[in-house]
């Protein structure tokens, strides 16, 4: 975030980064509440494990692709 702020003199990227972060994390508590209230905490744990695994796989894949492109 600091690097983007130093490169962008008007500060638009720093603000956009926080906006994207908040937008991406806002549906999580709502979805977790729905899962816990309708299905129980066991399914909530399964949901957290599944989304964490998918996120880790996507992170590793994007890292490999950026290595191939020398980014």
What would your notes on this structure say?
With 71 residues, this protein is mostly helical. Helix content is 85%, strand content 0%. Helix 3 (27-38) packs antiparallel against helix 4. The longest helix is centred in the last third of the chain and has 28 residues, at 41-68.
Mean pLDDT: 83
Number of strands: 0
Strand content: under 5%
Tally of alpha and pi helices:
4
Quaternary organisation: single chain
Radius of gyration: 17 Å
> Element order, helices and strands?
HHHH
Helix content: over 70%
Distance between the termini: 18 Å
Count up the domains: 2
Uncertain runs = none
Characteristics:
2 domains, mainly alpha, about 70 residues, 4 helices
Concise structural overview:
The chain is an all-alpha fold and 71 residues long.
Topology, pairings included?
Elements: H1 2-7, H2 12-25, H3 27-38, H4 41-68
